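Q: Structure tokens for this one, please.
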Amino acid sequence: MEMVRIIPMASSIRPSLSSFRSCAARLGVSISSSNSSRRFGFLHLGSAVQQSQLFSVKASKFLRVEGSSMAVRAAGNMAQASTSITQEEALDWVKKDNRRMLHVVYRVGDLDRTIKFYTECLGMKLLRKRDIPEERYTNAFLGYGPEDSHFVIELTYNYGVDKYDIGTGFGHFGIAVEDVAKTVDLIKAKGGKVTREPGPVKGGSSVIAFIEDPDGYKFELIERGPTPEPLCQVMLRVGDLDRAINFYEKAFGMELLRKRDNPEYKYTIAMMGYGPEDKSPVLELTYNYGVTQYDKGNAYAQIAIGTDDVYKTAEVIKMSEGKVTREPGPLPGINTKITACLDPDGWKTVFVDNIDFLKELELL
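A: Here is the predicted structure, written as tokens:
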């Protein structure tokens, strides 16, 4: 499965920066917020270069050039930022950071149609919905429990855009159900598309099935007992599996839960996450023999992960050969701190400050 974050599931920290989908959501950055300046600030990547200097250890040079007013603002921000840390310290800190997957973001062509399918066929709940007419998009959050404790889906509908290219890099989402056959029958009765009938997974005994939602996103139904996280997987394809595993272990602090090679079908998978598969959402990385690049399309956007320190997070990502696309710091007009990055294959992730996230949900 393709586009996680979990500290022991009992944790109360469920940072899900209520979204990161700006008016430029179509470009791949999404910020959902009722505050337009917040959304603009997150997507305004043109200012990211200056912000990166403000939050980096090289900021002193930048401040001397930019003048006193900039220096005052930068000094205030730098006081919050972490100082440089060694690679050993960074790797140790990542493992101790309170991280969990908050939500996965993607675009759909008909929001009401998708909400109807997810609630009636997949048993999800509509957690909240927000329309931003001035920026011509609407967000909807769906899942199997509250955002502060569950991994959820954030849908984006951009006015007038009814179709997106999913590409070849995104694989599928995974949903754990107690009875795959019964779920498939329900989906068929509702007019849903089943692309793989229920049965044992190739080379294993787990019962699975595959379906498609109205926009063509694939969902793997996995037969499993009761679980605190029914929305349990995001599968993404990568061009170098060992490189990807190394990055997610070092930069994201994820654990390699298992790895399975399937030479008969010429692919290998690796399950990465912050907790056991039966209790936590996981990132499933898939490597197809000989394929090093994929078309990412413009439909899938990103995953959001909670962290206790976005500044240290950005430093560790840089040390691990990741690309920081949004330097760490508070979004304009508010205090929610975030940072965004790309993994070696170009898949995007946004890290959100845990405490700030709970404040956004008005839980603190």
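A few notes: The longest strand covers residues 100-107. DSSP finds ten helices and 16 strands in the chain.
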